[in-house]
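notes to self, project folder thing:

trying the whole complex as one job this time. last attempt i did each chain seperately and stitching them together was a nightmare. two parts in total, labels are on each line so i dont mix them up again. if this works i'll redo the older ones the same way
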Amino acid sequence: MENAKTLIKKWHKVIESNNLELLNEIIADNAIFSSPVVFKPMEGKEITMMYLHAAGESFNMEKFEYTKEIHDDMNSVLEFETFIDEISVNGVDMIEWNEDGKISNFKVMIRPYKAVQKVQEKMIEALDNLD
Amino acid sequence: MENAKTLIKKWHKVIESNNLELLNEIIADNAIFSSPVVFKPMEGKEITMMYLHAAGESFNMEKFEYTKEIHDDMNSVLEFETFIDEISVNGVDMIEWNEDGKISNFKVMIRPYKAVQKVQEKMIEALDNLD
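result (full assembly):
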C-alpha cells in the first residue's frame, strides 16, 4: 500500500496544475475539512472541495511556497508561506490519506494573528457576496 | 542517532512533570520559538523557555490532550486540544530536534479564530502586568 510520502505527489500535482478534475479524483467522498477560522469541521466531498478552492482564491498562489514536509504513515503535514493582500501567512496543511489513497481529512492552521484575522474578513466578505 | 519518534519521550516527560529543570535540559541554546500570534520568531533559549512556560499557564493543562503525533526524521508535529477560559483550542506543536537531541525550533499554530484572538488578549494582559 502507498503511504503519505508517495501519495503527496498527487496533491502537489493538483496545486501545480490548479486542475479541479485532479482535485476531484483525490478527495474522498466522506472527506472532512477543518478551516483555520471556524471550529466546526465541514463534512463531505463537495464542501471540502469548495473550501480548498476558496483557499486557493484568497491566498496569493504566485507567492505560495511549501517550506517543509513531514510524512508519517498515512499523515502528511505541509508547512507553507504565502500572502493575503499584504499580510504574511505561515501555515500548515494537515492531510490524512485513506487506504484508497484519497484525502479523508484536510485541516488548515495558520499564524500569526493578523493572518487569521485577514482570512476571517475574507470569509465574511465571501458570505456577504452570496446574498 | 536518535530520531524524533524516540526523542519525543523527553518532551512528554516535561509536560507530565511540569518540571522546568527537565525543560532546561532539552532546549538548545540557540532555540527559536514562533508563537501563534506574532510573526517574528523569538531567538534564544531563555525567551523560548519563557514562552513555553507562559503557554502552560494560559492553556487549561488539566484538559490539555495530545490527539495525534506525526514524526519524520528529526521533526515532530503534535496536535493538541485544550481550552483557554471557555474557548476551545485546537493546535499543533511543531518541534525540530537537533543532532544533540535537543529542541532547536518550536513553532505553535492554533485554530479557530476565537482561540487565536483569546491568546492575543492574554498576551496583551501579560505585557500590561509587566508595567
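what i see at first glance: Chain B is about 40% helix and 35% strand.
need to look closer tmrw
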